Fold:
Amino acid sequence: MSKVAIVTAASKGMGFACAQRLVANDYQIAMLSRSSEIHDLASDLGGIAVQGSTGNLEDLERLVDATFETYGQVDVVVNNTGHPPKGELLELTDEHWKEGFDLALMNVIRVSKLVADRMRHGGSIVNISTFGAKEPSLNFPISSVARTALSAYTKLFATKYASEGIRMNNVLPGYIDSYKADEETIKQIPMLRQGAPDEVAELVIFLASDKSEYITGQDFLIDGGLVKSI
Ligand SMILES: NC(=O)c1ccc[n+]([C@@H]2O[C@H](COP(=O)([O-])OP(=O)(O)OC[C@H]3O[C@@H](n4cnc5c(N)ncnc54)[C@H](OP(=O)(O)O)[C@@H]3O)[C@@H](O)[C@H]2O)c1
Structure:
């Protein structure tokens, strides 16, 4: 029987590329995003969809419940999400920080609680994070801080569930062309180009699959050489 994958924030960009590649690799798919087009996109891929937000617990519950009702199991979760609010470091409000943490940290914590004890035959959770989790960027303050915390959460989850065959890893993209970077930014990327969503999806598929079965609790940069720290 095919394995079953959930992909959140899946209507375009990296999320959609992951959903397409999972289906091409014989996974059955359940997708979430806020816009209604997610229903047609999922149906084109032979999967199911739930319309809702990664920042909302009830929407995540509906997604996980619908997946178990339809397929009876979940083997893979790709926790992609929207873009946390941006702005000058000290001008970001409490509401911005709360919204960003709901979107880019609590999404993973909530989904983990919903699926972990039901992944009876093991599983792989892959979170789309950011290069800012390794090298915090003033261009993306909330994303950097929330996703540094996500790396810590990932270590804890990986440690607790490794013996049950449930893994969690983070993919840390640099500038991917679903986000328009300016010329100055592109000049700072050693490969002098943005990445493509499909290149990120390729790494996600590897981490989702049994080919990576001895890997858990790790952060993987995919950034064209952008981050220089060792
Ligand atoms: N692109 C980059 O260079 C880059 C680099 C590092 C990290 N990231 C991170 O990677 C993630 C995806 O980036 P991307 O460039 O692929 O994005 P994108 O092309 O703008 O697509 C975002 C996707 O997320 C969905 N979405 C947005 N907010 C959502 C929410 N609250 N709940 C559910 N779905 C939501 C959108 O669909 P709806 O509008 O229908 O909801 C859409 O499908 C973001 O979290 C971003 O911070 C991106």
